[in-house]
Amino acid sequence: MSSDFETYEQDFGTLTADITNKIGRIPKLAGEEKTQLVLNVDKQLEEVRELLEQMDLEVREIPIQSRGMYSSRLKSYKQEMEKLEKDFKRSRIAYSDEVRNELLGDDGGSSESQLIKLREERAHLLDNTERLERSSRRLEAGYQIAVETEQVGQEILTNLHSDREKIQRSRDRLRETDANLGKSSRILTSMLRR
Q1: DSSP state of 106
Q2: Nearest Cα to Cα of residue 84 among 4, 133, 169, 17
Q3: pTM over 0.85
Q4: Closest alpha carbon to 88 in 37, 140, 32, 31
């Protein structure tokens, strides 16, 4: 199983390196070329998400003694993925100096202040989006924990019901044995009298 995990790790490394390279190129492009590269990176990020899900499943199958090491590696990969997604979002709205000048013209002063204002607004929007995404992930994790807790509770109830039935059967056998012992005792007593 750990060999599958290591294969996923290699795939993760290759994909993330390629994505990082492409994210760096996005701000320098414009038009159709930029759109195509953004779609390509988006598709690769989805592949990375699927890889992380596979790695998560593999970690759950690893024996408990070794699981800690793999869990910490998976956690760092998830953090790397979050950073990649943030960088990708920023790169989609960022423009290189050439593209910026082409879009806004070269009249420096007023466009520069507008550009600063736009950057601040974009940064603010990105922060809000990231907060919303973090909240969504927390809610999703909370829901997952609730579902898992419900499943564990259901298993415990099933086990308790089974244990109750076993105790009832044992109690019935004990009463039966007690009655048989009483009967045997009376028979022995009557035999001794004779």
Answers
A1: S
A2: 17
A3: no
A4: 37
